[in-house]
From TrEMBL:
Main location: membrane
Name this polypeptide is given: Phosphate transport system permease protein
Keyword annotations: Cell membrane, Membrane, Phosphate transport, Transmembrane, Transmembrane helix, Transport
Transmembrane segments: 20-40, 60-93, 105-136, 156-179, 232-252, 272-295
Mode of membrane association: Multi-pass membrane protein
UniProt-listed PROSITE patterns: ABC_TM1
Main function: Part of the binding-protein-dependent transport system for phosphate; probably responsible for the translocation of the substrate across the membrane.
Domain ABC transmembrane type-1, residue spans: 68-295
Family recorded in the similarity comment: Belongs to the binding-protein-dependent transport system permease family. CysTW subfamily.
Organism: Mumia flava
One GO MF term attached to the UniProt entry: phosphate transmembrane transporter activity
């Protein structure tokens, strides 16, 4: 004899929470779709505008290409500087300090994420730029054979490298926080097994912790890259931009970035030039979306590989 079982009745609180969660998820998709529609509608006239109709006097692709280069170049430089430092700080807090001291250092790093962008910009232009003038001159005198330091060095220190250092400081707490959490997820049994086999603490970290946390580190790095790509005020305040394509890191002739260019140019322009700026925002949106998709693909691939071992 079979008995029919009725599904358990869900509690009111569960139904409310499920509905709110679903509404929030759909709202994010709706907002994202609205942003895409707005950027596409308002930006299309700028993309198709002829050079003599806009302030720059160039076609859209010729005008936006240096901005795309500057955005990617400054963000890549920031990522190269921030990721090793963030991993080192996370490892130090997690494995090399007493628990109470590690919590204190963790709070200090997290506080950096709460500092407004304009404060970083003021620090960059008032303090950091002046401090870097002498190092830039030294790099020019000793390493000018490299295209990165071909010079002539900037007399103010407001270069793409200075802006990248500011961006690196800004994305440091994001990557560090994610790396710390990922390191804490490493199975304790694996760590103890490595130490029991005679591994030093660094060997345990190198052979157990870092491989286990690789996907999380990549995900945190891509999240920091997304922040660097979209940063506006700090870069606009620090960078002395000329709208060129160059790999020179210490010269006063520097590429600009899309967000900084929009912030500096939007208020003083009108007509189709506004549509061109909005179209550059659409390009930035596509770049950021591509970075997020690539990060998700990398993380998922690493996850599948780890589960298949």
């Amino acid at each position: 004899m079979t008995t029919l079982t009725t599904p358990a009745k869900r509690r009111l609180g569960d139904r409310i929470f499920t509905g709110l969660s679903r509404t929030a998820a759909y709202s994010i998709l709706a907002i994202l779709a609205g942003v895409v529609i707005f950027l596409s509608i308002e930006g299309w006239p700028g993309i198709t505008a002829s050079p003599d109709e806009v302030k720059s006097g160039e076609s859209f692709l010729a005008w936006v290409a240096p901005l795309v280069f500057g955005t990617l170049w400054s963000s890549a430089l920031a990522l190269v500087m921030a990721v090793p430092l963030a991993i080192g700080v996370a490892l130090f807090i997690t494995y090399y300090t007493p628990r109470s001291l590690g919590v204190f250092f963790g709070y200090l790093v997290d506080l950096l994420a709460a500092v407004p962008s304009v404060v970083f910009g003021l620090w960059g232009i008032a303090v950091l730029a002046g401090l870097l003038v002498s190092p830039y001159e030294w790099l020019y005198q000793n390493l000018s054979f490299l295209p990165f330091f071909a010079g002539p060095p900037s007399a103010t220190g407001r270069t793409i490298l200075t802006a990248a250092i500011v961006l690196a400081v800004m994305i440091l707490p994001i990557i560090t926080a994610i790396a710390r959490e990922v390191f804490k997820q490493t199975p304790v049994l694996l760590e103890e097994a490595a130490l029991a086999l005679g591994a030093t603490r660094w060997e345990m970290i190198r052979t157990v912790v870092l491989p286990h946390a690789r996907s999380g580190i990549i995900g945190g790095s891509m999240l920091g890259l997304g922040r660097a790509l979209g940063e506006t005020m700090a870069v606009a305040m620090v960078l002395s931009a000329s709208g060129v394509v160059t790999f020179n890191l210490i010269s006063s002739t520097n590429p600009s970035t899309i967000p900084a260019n929009i912030a500096l140019q939007f208020k003083e322009n009108s007509g189709l030039t506004i549509n061109v700026l909005i179209a550059s925002g659409l390009v930035l949106f596509v770049i950021t979306l591509a970075v997020n998709i690539a990060a998700r693909a990398i993380v998922n691939r690493r996850k599948d590989f780890a589960e298949g071992r």
